[in-house]
Amino acid sequence: MSLAPESNRPEFSWRQDGSHDELLDFVRGVGSYTSDFDLPHQCHAVFVRSPYAHARIVSIDLTNALACPGVQAVITGADLQEAGLGTIDPLVAFNGQDGKPMFKAGIPVLAWPQVRHVGEAVALVVARDRLAATHAAEQVLVQWEPLPAITDPCQAIESDQIRIHAHCPNNLALDWADGDEAQTEQIFRQAAHVESVDLAEPALTACSMEPRAAIASWDAQAQRLTLIASTQGVMVVRKILAEHVFRIPPQSLRVLTPHVGGGFGAKVQAYPEYAAILFASKRIGLPVKWVATRLEAFLTDTHARNSRLRARMAFDARGRILGLSVDNIVGIGAYTSTYMAIVGTNNTKNCLSSVYRVPSIRIRSRLALTNAMPHGPYRGAGRPEAIYLIERLIDQAAISMGMDRVSLRQRNLITPPEMPYQAPNGQLYDSGDFPRALTRVLHLAQWDQFEERRQRSARQGHLRGIGLCCFLEVAGGILEEPADLRFPGNGEIHLHLGSQAMGQGHLATYPALVAGRLGIDLARIRLIAGDSDATPGLVATVASRSTMMAGSATALACDEAIRRGRLITAHLLEVDVADILFQAGRFTLVGTDRSIALLDLAKHMAAVEDLPPELPTSLDNVALFTSSAMTYPNGAHVSEVEINPDTGEIQILQHTAVDDVGTVLNSEIVNGQIMGGVLQALGQVLGEQLVYDADGQLQTASLMDYSVLRADVSPNFVLEHQEIAAQSNPLGVKGAGESGVAGALPAAVNAILHALSYRGIQHMDLPFTSGRVWAALHRS
User: Fold this and answer.
1) CB 648 within 8 A of CB 774
2) Neighbours of 138 (CB within 10 A)
3) What does pLDDT average to over the chain?
4) pLDDT, position 4
5) Cα dihedral 236→238→240→243 (10° resolution)
6) How far apart are CA 325 and CA 64, in angstroms?
7) Residue partners of 513: CB distance under 8 A and separation at least 6
């Protein structure tokens, strides 16, 4: 990766060769992140933020701030309105069940004349250095008129006394539903048993190791803006900022992303800080840099989860599932962010059948505006909520019906002869062996020997529990993705992708895919991403779609290069194309030693004259892969835990996972993705929670208060893969980035509640902190 400061035009690219280890670079601390870069003559930005969750801005006095040494500009929301800047609007919106469109509240770049969450920016100070900017920001005097605030999504839609937006009654942005309500209710009336759950899922934040950062610059000669920022998709960010905010052609804005220290969905958003510093850079004619503090990250990174999950499941007398009804209330924060409409609706709905035969499914989702930071996708993005509901329902039903929890699952699993399976929620499962995954995970976890281990723990005064989850999630998102494969003639192959790396190991995957498909030395492959000037497509890195979509497009681009190369080689050798064989990087005339290396062919193409018009003139091509369907990563997970009743402390002893992510291209990368997802799920189970007080003040805005899972409490992992190729893409992959969350969250909760059941505790909501567990045990 290189930055060319002399030209103010950064160029980001990644080269993979056989001796290079990208992951080792990160461990050694030699990654290159946004905050590592500086541009000549750059200034620094500091934001003035609201201390109130809800208030009117009576006035802003900039006099003292403007008089501070080194200050280049102080900009307010009124300035931006006068300049005609727009808001950051959602890219996705649905109609409600009444046919009315979703209420869309775009995020202002700088709030004026009202703020709707703590930390919302109302002014931007730009100075020669960060210290001067910080000092000047403290001199901005804002007069406030506080207003009542509301942060609980259920309370927000139950009362109309506090309106976050004047034109949104009851703060209900969307009342959405799917499925036949009358049919489902008829099934419930005839059921032998109905099980219900009411689960509170608190709000979380991604808490990425790398806080958000950005550098904006304005090229007056080219009349063009450039943004370097930590994003999950340069093209999405460019589109929103150019079209929605600045109302300029997308080509007038270049967006670049270097290494990203964790995205998890939070960095897909085009944030107001990016637009604000772009405006400031153009105004003062100098680059402007901003790096978020950890407090700013807690306050202004998109929040996630924050749902009230209510569901009922109907069973017949033999324990077979008859129907499922879900009522979901999702807090979305003060504004409607880029993809939030999908998270709380389709993403949850699409997973509700999971691996089970569920003849009838009905879901209602209500998206509630609250006085909190706007919410967005976070690893799983609505899908783990569906699995959590289903697995809790089945565990509770097993107790209520006096059945074994494994047997109850087994009798409801979809079997391989039923594939392709049409689920009632609209999904067509193309592959999978769900019973085999369950059988295998029980064996690996030594489920049958658990009672011996439990008694051993009991003799030591500890509670031991084991929990199971069978799951299926839906991956892929938008089912179209290009790959741009280029042969510059210098002995290299350049692969341009819109899919960006955030620690998933793209360098270990895509160059190897090209090298293997084309028979080329790995050192010859160069992966280029994170630059809107060189990136095809529009979709960000989300929805566990990278290898499925970008990988498949890459495979098609390689196949097209081979096809073109065979045509050109046949012309040069004056033979029929059917006699040209491509193998190990060479085009060979069958039965002879006459051959041309692929890279040599690309190198000499420019010198070839008088090619017939029907022949390609280059191996360069852009391949567009369109998937026929989503993919369905699935599996079975088992968590085993031990609880110390004297302290409430929970130890996750072992997590066992059998995952079907389709064809595994790189087992090390896939294992890392599964473990990462599991650990983030365990963080949610054991302690992560954003807590607001009655006035909308965030009480967990530091790492002293927000409990991120530590490495020293990581469980022993037992991982295995059940490779059943997906039928919807040429690589047979299904996606691995988020399935660890979907499997681990319910498995860990079920294990903890199983342990607590020996003391009579049947239900607790997330998170299971030691203090809450201790209190529950002593109450019992």
Assistant:
1) yes
2) 14
3) 94
4) 37
5) -130
6) 59
7) 551, 554, 555, 558, 665
Please answer whether residues 726 and 733 qualify as being in contact, where contact means their C-beta atoms are separated by less than 8 angstroms. Answer: yes
- Coil, helix or strand at residue 349: helix
Of residues 613, 555, 527, the one with CA closest to residue 730: 555
Dump pLDDT digits (tens) for 280-301: 999 999 999 999 999 999 999 9
Query: Domains in the chain and their CATH numbers?
Result: 32-153+213-293 (3.90.1170.50), 413-476+629-780 (3.30.365.10), 480-626 (3.30.365.10)
Q: Distance (Å, rounded) from C-alpha 372 to C-alpha 358?
A: 36
Beta bridge partners of 252: none
CA–CA–CA angle 189, 194, 197 (5° rounding): 130
HSE, side-chain direction, 13 A CA sphere, residue 445: 30
**Burial (0-12, 13-18, 19+ Cβ within 10 Å), 162:** middle
3-state secondary structure 642-679: EEECCCCEEEEEEEEEEEECECCCCHHHHHHHHHHHHH
Model pLDDT for residues 387-400, shown as the tens digit of each residue? 999 999 999 999 99
Distance CA 702, CA 543 (A): 28
Residue in 627, 631, 548, 539 with CA at minimum distance from that of residue 351? 631
Q: CA–CA separation, 733 vs 480, rounded Å? A: 15
Rounded to two decimals, the pTM is 0.94
- Residue 140 to residues 49, 283, 452, Cα–Cα distance (Å): 10, 19, 66
The Cα 637–Cα 471 span in angstroms is 8
Structure tokens at 425: 């929620």
Looking at residue 10, its pLDDT comes to 42
Q: Kindly give, in sequence order, each residue whose CB lies less than 8 Å from that of residue 125, ignoring residues fewer than 6 positions away.
A: 45, 46, 47, 48, 65, 71, 73, 74, 133, 136, 137, 140
| Nearest residue to 276 (alpha-carbon basis) of 483, 133, 93 | 133
Q: With contact defined as beta carbons under 8 Å apart, do 730 and 628 qualify?
A: no
Amino acid at position 656, single letter: T
Q: What tokens does 653 get?
A: 């002893």
Which has the closest alpha carbon to 271: 245, 250, 306?
245
Does the pLDDT at position 13 exceed 70?
no
> How far is it, in rounded angstroms, from Cα 461 to Cα 270?
51
CA distances from 243 to 85, 239, 287, 640 (A): 10, 6, 22, 50
